[in-house]
Every structure is written in structure tokens, then in C-alpha cells.
């Protein structure tokens, strides 16, 4: 029997995402080959199986997921691709895990320019390299024009939890120092000011960064006296501190004048009537550590690129369990509550 | 110092998803407490940490991800929630893994009725229970009206690969029998016929199902002679066979008259001009197994709920490497190619 080989289809003459790119046929293969694989290829992805098969080092694992829907997809200081890598790396790292493997699930809107998709994928590859993680499995769906807003990216991640480390937002102890790694509100305000109709003289850039290296360093110096870590993303430092306080049934007392806010971020927040403590960060860390080890942890953070501005902003107290109370710059006390509603939609 | 406790916010008087449900504040908590936790709660999710901490049994792990964007979200035979569980369970199982833990990442459109969201979440809980997996970590984002189409769900999953099992789409061996677990095209045609403007007399229902139990059973009886498995979803059996053939650089020869198609599915396909081999399935399995073990595997499948209609549809050949050739009902031979484009958008 003689079979004439098929002539290769005129695969990638499109300049934008087509519905057919998500259909599991030839154009799906072409999208993989032209956009995804050149940047993301590795020994796992190259197999193109429906699942990655991984040999993990012994230990407990951490497993996390986040879908990124930030708008605009390119913003000062980053884009949705690197945010999707760094955010999930950070969610693993704050659990005391060394992040190892990530998945990437894309939802693309018909008509998205392939050149923009490629920039995003390239950023993901670069961010993964910098954080020392591999994207080992993925999925791409395409929906019609008007059925999603350009691109959504889910990343899930797996890491190995360091032995002897036991971090949880339930673990605060009375007297713990609360350390914040730097200025608040940079990411959220970068997104806000880059949206149509808003502009400020001084350009605010996102703090989007992977924190696993700094977190590894502080766990090296204080493996058991660090009780909890969180990256204060949606809801900002206010939401993070409230979660820590309520999960641990402890109070948290913070001091407003210690909280670093860049002048341009403060200005933008004032203009918009937003509390910087409620604004999302994507490269900041909140640490609860036994007071006697706080200085050591602080010094270690200061020697890390992403912790130069680290400060102690308060401590864990027996008073007002489940609540966060701030000594204001004016000397009064104010409850720092969770934001009720939505100030900054689609921030991450 | 005296602090007046906050009065609880009037949390869940909404009947639809609000932007604030995704903001990380009080309404996000309320959504968790009212909709997600009652159905999904377990020892991992209850901790509300940013990552689940898991003790895995020893062995290699499988890791997979899929985002589900099916429209409509409720369809004959299932909904997007159970599809999101079963699809990811199946992607783990076809890699020879016992599925254990899943993540769930939601993107919700502002205005989605909470009652519909709850039905979906309930289905996910039920599907997870049936498949014997736990949803251990999650994330919810809300986007504005018109920025996504009601609901998208990403599930990622982790499973432990059975010792001694080595499945890959690269592993086909000449002479392998190709087994198909039942009728083709049910899921895709159920979606198509449930969309606006299309209706057929006989109601076609999706085959959406978790296959891990049946897959476990056939791996018990033929752990080393099963060389590859795939669930033929997007692109249908045609895409799956092509992937197997091209990844293994082997030919696949199939026989049209052996391929089971329900009459109502065949009728709908003819009406729409679609080849049933190109239509998505969500509860079917393609197995490549050494010919001498094929009957044993087939018998085992017949005794499973989801394999009663299993048949041998062809075999792996040395001819035409990378290509799938079908002996048609008329006695001619036809190349079964990947679909080039998009016949059935948003099928899964």
C-alpha cells in the first residue's frame, strides 16, 4: 500500500490567536512549536505527554495554585507572565518550601497578537530561570473574542518543604516580631497608574519579584524561630496581618511610622483615597519571628536584593486576639481591618 | 486600651458574584465560607494557608494541569465542575499514576449567580469523592462583566506513578493492539446539541467520567505490556492516535467498522458535517497494549462501568510511520489526519 505523505499545512501565517489554536489539532501543535517550546522547552515539556513525571527529593511537598488575570497585561515593572511565575514561586516559598516545578495553563482570547503572547511566554521562561524552577506541564485554551480579556494564566507549583521548618499562619507566638521586607503598595499602584485615564508624574513600578532566594537565606539562619511568612498580595499588608492574627487567635500591634511607603505611592494613594496597607504587593514579605532572632533575620534580609528595606513594623500581642491595631503617626490607635470591598480590581 | 469589636459586615446578601468577592477582603472570606468550604472542606483546605503541605507516598509523581472553559457550563450529562475534576484525574491516570491531590483555580465573571456557582462546586466535591481525590488548595479571581464568559476552572493534579509502569505516547511497539473503551463523540456532540439553536430529537449526553478506577484495574492485570494510554479529548480519537503515531514514529492502522458510534451521535455528526473521530470525549480511553495481552485487558475493561463497550480498533504497524490509516467501511484506505482547524470551540 502506498500512502502519499501529507503536505505540511500553511501553519503559522497568522499574526493573532485563532480559535483553531485551541482545538487540539494542527494549529495547536503549531502554536506549541512556534511560541511555547522555543522559550519553555526542557526535558519534561519536550515529551508532550499529558502529565509530567517527576522524581522528587524526599520530604513533604507544598502544592499551590493561582490564576493571574491582571489588567493591563503589560505594566510598569513587569507583565502577567513573570507575575504568574513569581507569584506561585512566592506562595511555595512562604510555606517553607523550595519551589521546584510549575504548571502553566493559558486561556487566550481570539485575536490576541501572537507577538504579545510570545513576549509574555519569554518573560515566564526568564522568570522561571531566575527563580530556579521549571515549567513542566501546560495547557492552552482559546475562547472567542469578548469571552475573556486577552489572557489569563494559571500557574500551579510544587516544592519540597525544608526539613525542620514548620510555617503556618496559625503559628504566631506572643512577642514575635513582625518584619516587613520593604515598601508597600508598589505593585497595586503601578497597575492603577498604568490604566487608562490615570497618570502620575513620577512613574511607579511594580515590585514583582521571586522571593525564594531571600526566604531560603532567612530560613538558613533561623529555621525554627520563624513562625509564619506571607507575601502580602491581594488585600495588601492589612489583609495579610489580619489573616495571621485571626488564624492564630493572637493580636498584632503595628506602628504606622515604621511602615515604608514610597512618596509617589503615598501620593497616588492619597489622590485615589486608598490606604497603602490595602494595596497589593508582589515582591514583599511579612515574617513573624521570635523577637530574639529578629535582628539576625533582618540583617540577612538587608543583604538580599529584595529585602534591603526590611524593617520591624510591630509585634504579636496577647491583647485584642484576631485583630490588628496600628499606632498612628498622630499617636492614636486604629483598627486595621480587612478591606470590605474591591478597590483595585484585577490587580494580579 | 479598649477596642470596640467590629460589627460583622452584612456579608452575603448578594445573589451574584461581585467584584469584591475576588479582592482578598471580607467578601472573599465570605465567598469561601458560604460557597466553597461547605462542599470542599478537608484537613488541608481548612488551614487556609497559601499552599497545601502534603506527605506523599514514595515514588515518582505525575503532575498535570488543565483549564476548563466549556460552554455552556451546564450540559447534558455534566457540568464544568465535574469535567474539571474528571479531566485532570484522567490526565494523571493515563500516565500510570494514582491521582491523589488536586488544586482548583476559579475565574468568575461578575454577575454569575451564586446559586449556579454552588451547584458547580457541589459537583466538583462529588466528582472528587467518586474519583478518590482531594482538592487541597485553591484560588478565586473575579473579573468584570464581559471580561470572561461566566466561569473558567483550572485544575492541576498530583498522583503517584505505579511502580514498574512506564507509559508514554512514545512507547508504541509494532504489533500492539489499539483498544478503545467505548463510543466516540458523545461529549462533543452533547455540548454542540445543547448550544443555542441546535437541537436533536434524541438527547445526547456527555460521557464525562473519571477513568482512574478502570485504568487501575487494567494496570493490575497487565502492568508492563500496556505501553501507552490517552484519553481522547480535544481533537478526538483522531488527534490521540496521531499523537501516539508521531511521538512513537510508528504507523497505526484502524478499521472503521470496529469504531463504536451511537446512532444519535452519528446522525448529529452527519448533519453538522463533522467526523466523529475528531469529536472530543471525556470518559473514553485509548490503550496500546502488546497483542498477546489485549484480550485480557479487554475483558478487564468490560467488567468496568466505563469500559463495557471496549473494542480493539486496530494495531501498531511498521508501515507509514507517524501516520494513522483507516480501512473504511467501503474497503478503501483513508489517512486520519489531525483536524486543521476548529470545529467545536470551547468543548472542554
The CATH class of the largest domain in chain A turns out to be Alpha Beta
Q: Which fold name corresponds to the CATH topology of the largest domain in chain A?
A: Phosphoribosyl-aminoimidazole Synthetase, Chain A, domain 2
**Count of domain modules of chain A:** 2
User: Structural class of the helix and strand makeup of chain A?
Assistant: alpha+beta
Characterise this structure.
- The structure is a homodimer of 348-residue chains.
- The N terminus of chain A is likely disordered.
- Chain A contains eight helices and 14 strands.
- Chain A has 348 residues and is an alpha+beta fold.
- Chain A has a seven-stranded mixed sheet. In chain A, strands 2-7-5-6 form a four-stranded mixed sheet, with helices on one face.
- The first copy, chain A, folds into two domains: 136 residues, 2-Layer Sandwich (60s Ribosomal Protein L30, Chain: A); 167 residues, Phosphoribosyl-aminoimidazole Synthetase, Chain A, domain 2 (Alpha-Beta Complex).
- Chain A starts with 25 loop residues before the first helix and ends in a 13-residue tail after the last strand.
- In chain A, strand 5, helix 3 and strand 6 form a beta-alpha-beta unit.
- Chains A and B meet through helix 1, strand 1, strand 2, strand 5 and strand 6 of A and helix 1, strand 1, strand 2, strand 5 and strand 6 of B.
